[in-house]
Design goal:
Chain A is an all-alpha fold. Chain A has helices at 7-25, 32-39, 43-47, 53-61, 77-93, 95-107, 111-121, 123-139, 150-166, 174-190. Chain A has 2 domains: 7-61, Arc Repressor Mutant, subunit A (Orthogonal Bundle); 77-190, no CATH class. At the A-B interface, α6, α7, α9 and α10 of A face α6, α7, α9 and α10 of B. The structure holds a DNA duplex.
DNA sequence: CTCTCCAAGGTACGTTGCGTACCCTACAAG
DNA sequence: CTTGTAGGGTACGCAACGTACCTTGGAGAG
């Protein structure tokens, strides 16, 4: 027989299996027995590594989320902002996003898990991208330097997230994205001049 | 013995029991057996009325949520806005709010339940209060008429909600509320002039 | 080369909680 | 008085989580 897997190798196999199961049936359908079976091992091996299902789910999520997209550079602040929102909207409304929402719901009342999620889902990197975007706009003379503030930079994504929480969810219509940019973000940036 | 309860009377008893249990142990602790026991009946009577636990939870939630507070009127737009946010923050971070979050998490992937929640939790009434607030500010000459736009009015509450989703939750620090008002809401309103 | 120890495998179990099935009983209406 | 319907009691099936315990492979020390 193939030699018995150990340590790192086994760990990767479990994570891969968990990711596959989540892709097929979402986080809700990711049962420990199923993951164990799929990975060709048993629950012991899993529980020796992660304390509970949620932790495994979060750990496995990174196997789905791939490299961060490069920051868009359309030449205008409006174009960049819209592009960022559109990409985020696409990601969140994909099957991929459904999994993330499932995880989020499961972690919703456990702050410890929530911070884990934050780290894995690249929310912080996202904020930095918005700051960078604003700085480019300032360099082009398109926005006042005073507009480069964290609260301003994070507002559009925050609004998009809240929009998800309110609606049934799947996908936010494009008009809303345009609205967020034209009615909130740009006035906010320009108002600082 | 007291005569056997039926129809409306029994239904109310069940809802009251469910609300009590939720108050004590949150939505997660609201098991069907417990509710039945507390109501002095059995699960049959419950399942004859609600298809599943979530539906009962949502139905019982109205027994906790009481009348809407009156809109604040501090004399300044800034004061009103801050007061609204502070009240919302208090409500959401109370035990009461914990229950609501639990319900929300449970309903998160069922659009049908989500709309039910929206109706019960009075989110729409909230938006109207913000519009009214803006109109008073316009009447006082404190804000340009062009600032009375739905997207502007809903932005602070949206930001607060997103803040909850991001953090572990319980309570958003007051500085954040001040920030939302001073860094986003007021500039947005004034920028319209 | 052998021994030893730990991680992995196998399997079964205890527990909780949802939702269902049945059958018995009170009570209201005809 | 009869009868149908809603309540009550109870037990069950089932899915999943998390745990216990024992057996076995195989890597590394001596």
């Amino acid at each position: 027989m193939g030699t018995r897997r150990r340590g790192e190798e086994l760990e990767q196999a479990i994570l891969r299996a968990a990711a596959e199961v989540m892709r097929e049936s979402g986080y809700a359908g990711m049962t420990m027995d199923r993951v164990a079976a799929r990975a060709g091992t048993n629950k012991n091996a899993i529980y020796r590594r992660w304390p509970h299902r949620a932790a495994l789910g979060i750990a496995a999520y990174r196997h789905l989320s791939d490299a961060a997209l490069p920051s868009p550079d359309t030449g205008t602040l409006r174009g960049d902002a819209l592009e960022m929102l559109r990409r985020a909207n696409e990601t969140w409304s994909s099957p991929h996003g459904a999994i993330l929402r499932g995880l989020l719901a499961a972690a919703a009342d456990d702050p410890e898990l929530l911070t884990l999620m934050r780290a894995r889902s690249g929310a912080d990197a996202m904020d930095l991208a918005w700051i960078a975007m604003l700085e480019r706009a300032v360099a082009r003379g398109e926005a006042p330097a005073a507009a480069v503030r964290p609260r301003v930079a994070t507002t559009p994504m925050m609004l998009l997230r809240a929009e998800y929480a309110m609606r049934g969810i799947p996908s936010v219509p494009d008009e809303v994205l345009v609205d967020i940019v034209d009615e909130v973000f740009l006035p906010l940036v320009r108002g600082r001049g």
